[in-house]
Design brief:
With about 240 residues, this protein is of the alpha/beta class. It has 7 helices and 11 strands. It starts with a strand and ends in a 26-residue tail after the last strand.
Length: about 240
């Protein structure tokens, strides 16, 4: 099976406190988005990768990719494109580009802010996708969950939520091209917005299976998440 990948790196947020979007922050000298990209470049079944970036960074990212991965860029396997206003817009642009390639039979979407995806987790995802199934990645929730509401001065705990059957969502998430395009077309017609691909699949009635991820495959949201040695929960290692 030939897999296409959309690396969603179109965000402009600077909540990490830096002067640039977090996908450009470096871990051990490498930008986060490059670290997120590498597992897909190394996988033999990934035939094409499209990196969605804020428009003002496209030229610079293209230069960096050409410098670091010249063969992949010149062959057309790796390309960068300007993302949209929303994550959903960026993902849709990338998937529609990939759908034009006859050789691509399935598409995965990965957050550029997840730079620690392991080869083992990616293998599991691609095996499921190769069987014609839409797929999501997640890990069982290990922390106690609270339901809260806003009080007069601060959030107030209202209920303890059972963590049984609760899973924390990760990426990559994906589906065969035809299923993905059908769901995207319907969402576009009905002007619906989704925060990830699994939400889109559920809404569109596309059944998808869960592939076990890893706590290592965390999303960078806080400065402490940048530590590549922080494997906080070894029970879910990939």
């Amino acid at each position: 099976m030939s897999i296409g990948v959309v690396l969603a790196a179109g965000g402009r947020g600077v909540r990490m406190g830096g002067a640039v979007p977090k996908q450009f922050l470096e871990i051990d000298g490498l930008p986060i988005y490059i670290r997120a990209l590498r597992p897909f470049l190394h996988h033999p079944e990934v035939a094409a990768i499209r990196v969605g970036m804020p428009e003002e960074y496209v030229t610079e990212v293209r230069r960096v990719l050409l410098e670091q991965f010249p063969g992949e860029v010149f062959s057309g396997r790796l390309e960068v494109f300007p993302g949209g206003k929303r994550r959903q817009d960026t993902v849709e642009k990338g998937i529609r580009q990939l759908s034009q390639a006859e050789k691509i039979s399935g598409v995965l979407v990965h957050d550029a802010a997840r730079p620690f995806l392991s080869a083992e987790v990616l293998d599991r995802v691609i095996r499921a996708l190769s069987q014609g199934q839409a797929v999501g990645v997640g890990v069982p929730v290990s922390d106690t969950l609270w339901r809260v509401s806003m009080g007069p001065h601060a959030p107030v705990v209202r209920e303890i939520v059972s963590r049984e059957s609760m899973v924390a969502a990760q990426t990559p998430q994906g589906a065969p091209v035809a299923l993905f395009m059908s769901a995207l077309d319907r969402a576009q017609r009905e002007e619906r917005e989704f925060t990830d691909e699994a939400s889109l699949f559920l809404w569109a009635g596309v059944p998808f299976i869960l592939v076990e991820g890893s706590s290592w495959n965390r999303k960078i949201t806080r400065p402490e998440d940048m530590n590549p040695e922080d494997r906080s929960d070894s029970r879910h290692e990939g």
